[in-house]
Every structure is written in structure tokens, then in C-alpha cells.
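Human: If only I could read C-alpha cells as easily as an amino acid sequence. Take your time, and here it is.
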Amino acid sequence: MKKYLFLFSLAIMFFVFNSNIKANALTFNQLPNTQTSEQWNVEIDKVKFSDPRDIKPKKGVYQTYSITIKNTKNDVSDVRVELFRDEENSNIKYGIVNLEKETLNRNDKDPFCFANFPLSEKAKELEVVITWKEKGSDRNYQERFTFNQN
């Protein structure tokens, strides 16, 4: 009986230890991870569509994600979306994705989507910068969304 109790305790310790190692991997705790504002809905999620040419995750180096951006307020034009990640021991942020779309209307059935982008496992932060103009205006607007990883 003591032998089974010892093996059971050993198995529990192994499971807990192994789980802790996995918990330290730099990935989003819960997907999809969504942030909203008055103008935008930004969602980070698992890669939804698989294409043989897509970037594949590389364990210990980077994971891959998708991002979907929906306009929730005024129709806009000249939309620019940039993704930046932090770098360990540096104040510099590194660009990952830079996309542009001529218009993005509130009722668009096809939101702004980037289906597959890599994010370093060393990164602790993903910053999404959206720049746009309201239709009929030359004024630029910008909004930033910061997603933190654990």
C-alpha cells in the first residue's frame, strides 16, 4: 500500500511540475483575447485557416496567431494596422505586421484580418496600432491596443 501511495504521490508531483513548465511558456492565457474601444474590436486568436505556405509555430522560438479587426462605429478610410512586439532587455519595439486597407466600414462582412503571424515566445507584449481617417476628412486618428502575455 505504501508503494502505491508513493507512486501516486510521485505521479502527482510529476504532473504538477510538468504543468508549471508549460505555464511558463509565453503564450496568451486564453484565446480568443479581445479588446474593444468605441471605434474598434481587436481579437487575437489561434490560426483559423491552414495553408501549407503559412508560417508554422516553432516550439521555444515563436507561436503563431491570427488577428481580426472590426470597425464598430464610423465608416473609415486609409486604415493602417501595425503590430509591434517588445524585445527582452530593450526599450525598442519590433514591427511584425504592417497592413493597409482603403476603407473599412461598420457593416463590412469581411473585417480586417491577418490569418497568420508569428510572435516570439520571449515577447511579453503585443501592441496593435490602428491609424485611420474618417470618411470625408483629412485628419488622422490613431488608437493603440496592448495585449500582454503571461
User: Anything to note?
Assistant: The CA atoms of residues 25 and 121 lie 7 Å apart. Helices lie at 2-23. The beta strands are 33-36, 40-45, 62-71, 76-86, 93-104, 112-120, 125-134, 140-148. The longest strand covers residues 93-104.
